[in-house]
Fold these 3 entries.
Entry 1:
Amino acid sequence: MNFIIICIMILVCILLLSIIKLEYLKRLLTRYIVDNRSSELSFIESSDFSVLECAKILNKKYKIGLINSYIVVNSIKIR
């Protein structure tokens, strides 16, 4: 019985660490996208799409989450 509880606790800890690491990597990718804009992100600077549409397109492309995509779009449009 104690062995099962210890195994469950270890798996929960591993799961939490994986989630934290994934969020950290998403933030790093977001920062990289903002700092190193490429020509493929030129649709953000043009006023053809709204901010929300640009965030949705960016989220589909990089899978960084809608909030991080929104932050990237706002950072690029302000510059």
Entry 2:
Amino acid sequence: MKNYKLSMNQLALVIGLLFFLLTAIPLTLAQVERFSPAIDDNELDFRFTWLKSDKSIYEGGEVIEFEAFFMNNSTHNLSVTMTATSPFLGGINSKNPESESVIIPSGENGSIKILLPTVEETYGRQILRLSAVATSTSDESITADDQTLFQVAFEEKPVSRLPILGLIIVGALIAGFVLRTTRSELSDI
């Protein structure tokens, strides 16, 4: 049997290595758990996936048929309702349109259709805010929400022809005046 003698440097190195392993491994495992938390069955993972309207350009006063698609990645079946908000839907004092409730099964996609009446005097590009609220069908205390924006294009505001016509008339009068005064000066020569 050999007699192993460790020098002080070797002993300090071994003790330091053991200390490092005993402290570093638990800290590393704690960091992994912190940045990848366990999946909670009470969390609802749902979101808007894409949005679609029935036309690309609308006239003011027209009803927009709008459809929003959702993805349900949670472990719960969800009851989802959607609310639309925008000034072109009737202004501040009117009630925001709300959809009927739709059930989206766990792990599947679903969609909600909503009709949006618009104000007569609406022109150009407008922003529509969509808010969806999901509630678990098995436990109503478990809820989540998601919001998104959608740009709706309306026809451009018609340009009045009166200012253009007025500019042409004023230009013709000035041209006539200049022409008449230059002719009378030329005839004097």
Entry 3:
Amino acid sequence: MIVSQDSIERRELFKRIRQDIKEKQYAAIPFPLTKEELDKAAEYFLDFLRLPIDLKEQFYFIIDPKDRGSKVGYVRKRKKLGKRKKYADDDKELFHYHECAEDAFKELLASGTPHVTTFFASARTVYRAAKTTIKTIIQAFETEFPGVYKKFFSDKGYPRFYLRFLKYNIPKKDKTLASGHYDLGGCTLTIAESGPGLRMGTDDSDLNPVAYKEGYVLFTTGFNFQKVTSSEFHPAWHDVIKIGKPYSKDVARWSIVFFADPVGMEIPKFEQTNTPKKFQG
């Protein structure tokens, strides 16, 4: 039996990813865009956020009302504390880009608003690079788990791929910018960040700072990934803490992240993804 070079490379990539995730919960994967290109994309996103709120809020669309993970566009998130409607210092603005956004916001894009046009052009570029990268990763997993590729790259329904641009607002006092959690979907590429602060571990007891390498992105597994692979690929627990000076006077930090979800998987409940647990495997 002749084994192709592509097959050998995919198997080797799978072995490296499995070992890295076992040791530190993430694997560094080569990425085709430069740091300068990603920094520019983040700046275009921050320019978009400076637009009037009534315009930003028009960029909101739900692909499937039955799928709470299919929200596309602009969102401001504030974490509530208890029943008194107070908020934690977990305040952020984000934009989810999906390929359907081009049609969903066609009229808004046709207006030619400069900050909208430049942001969408850069988001499109990053999204395509991320989709190509996640395709390479899932093809590597296909060598060990036949059929997993079609669970992500299905010919049925819409692609469950979302590119998130995220701005953390300046916290009042808490050093936590994002509280600990598991990503609710399949897997994640952490593509770029304005500075350190991301920590990963198996739970709250062993969180460690993430080491970045230019030219690479970080691959991590979400809550549902072990359901389409095996129990050894349990989700990575992670949070974000404040380190050093804010990015600017009104931005504590920014990040760019890509989420890839398998088709047809039930989305876990909030309590499941926001409570650390000991996974078997």
